[in-house]
Give the backbone structure.
Amino acid sequence: MFLAQLSDLHFRSQGTRLYDFIDVNGINAEIVNRVNALAERPDAVIITGDIVNCGRPGEYRLARRILSQLNYPLYMIPGNHDSKAYFLDAFSDLCPLLGHDPENMAYAVDDFPVRLLFIDSSIDGASKGRLSDNTLAWLETMLSGDNKESYVFMHHPPVPFGSAQMDPIACENGKSLLELIDRFPQLTRVFCGHVHRMIATQYRQALICSAPATVHQVPYLHTDTRPLYSLEPGAMMMHNLVPGIGLVTSYHSLAQFAGPWLYDPQISCPGDDC
Ligand code: CO
Ligand code: CO
C-alpha cells in the first residue's frame, strides 16, 4: 500500500486569488499534474479537508474541475473551511463512499492490508472541530468488528499540538478518540490536516500526525497567537506500508527545486584531489 496525502488546498473561485495575492488555484492545478506524473504511483490520493477557502459553490466548481483530473482513486473528507452540503455535491461522484448525508460522512476503505477510516470532524460555520456522537459510534462499531490494523483520517488534530494559534481550534472532543485508542490496540495512526504543517506526536500505540498544506503554511509557534501564514513551500505526505515493518510516512516537498541527480562515488570522491 502506497498513499499520497494532500491537505488544505483552500481553492478560491475562478480568477480569484487567496487573500488577493496567492494563486492557490494555479498552484493546486500544477500539483495535481505533478502527482499524476509521479514515477512511483500511489494506490490512492487522500485529501484531509479544507478543499476550498470560503465554502462557496463557485469555489467547489473550480476545485471539482481540477481534482477530477487526478488519475487515482480519491478519498476525501471536509475541513472547517468547507461547507458540508456543497462539499458532498461537488465530490460524491469522485468519492462515492462519502454517501449522501452531509451530516454523516464516515466511510471505511478495506482494499488494503490495513483499514482506512475517514471521518468528518468539521462543524459548519465553526473553525474548531468536533466528533459527533454518530461518528464516534460508527468508529466504535468499525473497531469492534475485528482487529484489522486501522488508521483514522480526519481534518482537525484530536490533540493540541502545542501551537498557540491552532490549539484553540483543534478537535474539541478529541479525548473521545483517545479513549478509542486506549481500547483498541489495532488503531495505530491518526492522520489529520488543518494546522498547515507536518507535526507528529504519539498517544499510546498511535502516531498522530498532521500533513502540510499544498500552498500556504502556518508557522509552529508556542506563544504567539496571531493568525500568521507563509509561503514556505508546500508538501504532501507519502504513506508506504513496508512489509515486516509497518507504515512509514515521509515528507514529500512540493517546492520547485533543482535535481534529482544521480549519486556517483567516482564523482563524489575522485581520489585525485584533496
Ligand atoms: Co486549512
Ligand atoms: Co482547517
